[in-house]
Amino acid sequence: MAWTWRFETRTGETVEPPEGAAAVFPAQADAETWLGEEFPDLLEAGIDQVVLLEGTREVYGPMSLHVA
Predict the structure, then answer these.
(1) Which domain holds residue 40?
(2) Which of 13, 22, 40, 59 sits at 20 to 30 Å (Cα–Cα) from 34?
(3) Checking phi first, is residue 43 left (phi over 0); if not, alpha (psi -120 to 50) or beta?
(4) What is the pLDDT of residue 38?
């Protein structure tokens, strides 16, 4: 099954990812590693939170990208 991220605003509205950010990952760990490396760029692009998906199943989230 493929792992992807859904990108959202603070209010939960789904937004298009920045160019090159709509990657599909073979494993959960790969998706999470990518997010750890890319979250500053996602914030700069106006993305406030993400949801991890395995296929169409929501695994977890929404998870804020902002420092608490």
Answers:
(1) 1-9+27-68
(2) 13
(3) alpha
(4) 92
